[in-house]
Design goal:
The protein is of the alpha/beta class and about 400 residues long. Helices cover about 45% and strands about 15% of the residues.
């Protein structure tokens, strides 16, 4: 019966993680997997999260279902995080729904778009997080790509991006990375976000903001500049937010899909009820523990302040590792100054797939074939070794 089924291709990044774990080398370095690591090379366990989890455990609440779209306390926290400083009137134009991670939020959005906008296309940056294409292919949305990044200059192709989106039709969806673009680390400026918002408004487009790294480019407040630009322009805006990175809640799958529309609460309630039907048919109810952690932290002044400080510390370490890597590569006459000006966890090095393979086999350095690196995988102890390995490959061509 199943003889016609062929093996699926393994996820390239998760496969690298397994290979890295099996590698016995004491000098091995993993800059492939998108997890924040601290200076000791371990995933960060936030003190604020530890304290919130203890409170939740001691409360010994009944393990009943959360509402289909999430608890009120969690959703209030999400709306405050995503839509900073909204007026009371504007808050009537916002709704939020819990999702299993940012990936789950993107899938709910995809199902919604396909059901109610079946003729629309979704525009995705080139390059982008590969799973974006997987998610929207799975719901049979038509995908177009807009140019985003010049590998030679390591710069944003903003004019080309705008020119490409001139071909978008009314009710098309534009997917953007809210900050810390994955895989490039290159983000639009505030003025460029405002220009994109005007374009979207003028052409009658919808926008889907993937917000996976809030607080890792600038502050938690500043990293929603993109969202603010679109809502101030009156663009119908969907936001898929994830709390894996900035709360360290990777295996709890904590995310949300938020929606902004100026058409009013009645329309938003219709959207919420339709998304609830989509959720009910996929996973029924959201997981509770991670959402309770986020809500506990956000609604407690002391814990929230502690969390914000911890996010600042993570961002500052990312900035430091970028500076150290640029300096180390410069000792080998390699100009990687672009890394200093990028945001978040990711950057792209001038490495071919063959270079990446050599780094793995000869130096026990693991990164993805595109040359993307996660700078959070670097520490003061290994950045010199990493730079030397990269230089040996780049200078040995």
């Amino acid at each position: 019966m199943f003889e016609h089924i062929q093996a699926g291709s393994p996820d390239p990044i998760l496969s690298l993680a397994a290979d890295f774990k099996a590698d016995p080398s004491e000098s091995k370095v993993n800059v492939a997997v998108g997890i924040y690591h601290n200076e000791s090379g371990s995933p960060e366990n936030l003190t604020s999260v530890f304290e919130a989890r203890n409170r939740i455990t001691q409360a010994n609440s009944a393990l009943t279902y959360h509402p289909i779209t999430g608890s009120t306390a969690y959703l209030d926290a999400v709306k405050s995080l995503v839509f900073q400083d909204l007026s009371a009137a504007e808050s009537e134009n916002v709704l939020a729904m819990q999702a299993p991670g940012g990936t789950g939020a993107l899938r709910i959005a995809g199902e919604f778009f396909k059901k109610f906008f079946p003729d629309s296309q979704i525009w995705i940056s080139n390059p982008s997080w590969p799973i974006h294409n997987d998610i929207f292919n799975a719901v049979n949305l038509r995908i177009e790509h807009y140019p985003y990044y010049d590998r030679t200059s390591h710069a944003l192709l903003f004019d080309e991006l705008v020119s490409s989106l001139q071909s978008a039709k009314a009710k098309d969806i534009v997917l953007v990375h809210g900050c810390c673009h994955n895989p490039t680390g290159v983000d639009p400026s505030t003025a460029q976000w405002e220009s994109l918002a005007k374009l979207a408004k003028d052409k009658g487009l919808m926008v889907l903001v993937d917000l996976a790294y809030q607080g890792f480019a600038k502050t938690v407040r500043e990293d929603v500049t993109s969202v603010k630009a679109f809502i101030e322009a009156g663009v119908p805006t969907f936001v898929a937010s994830s709390y894996s990175k900035n709360f360290g809640l990777y295996n709890q799958r904590v995310g949300a899909l938020s929606v902004y529309s100026q058409e009013g609460p009645a329309v938003l309630e219709n959207i919420r009820s339709q998304c609830a039907k989509i959720i009910r048919g996929i996973y029924s109810n959201p997981p509770a523990h991670g959402a309770n952690v986020v809500a506990t932290i956000y609604h407690d002044d002391s814990l929230r302040a502690k969390w914000l400080s911890e996010v600042d510390t993570m961002r500052e370490r990312l900035t430091l590792m970028r500076e150290l890597l640029v300096a180390e590569l410069a000792t080998y006459d390699i100009d990687a100054s672009h890394i200093r000006h990028e945001n978040g966890m990711f950057s792209i090095l001038d490495l071919s797939p063959e270079d990446v393979q050599t780094l793995r086999e000869a130096h026990h350095v693991y990164l993805v074939g595109s040359g993307r690196i996660n700078v959070a995988g670097l520490t003061r102890d290994n950045v010199g070794y990493f730079a030397k390995a990269v230089a040996s490959v780049m200078n040995g061509r």
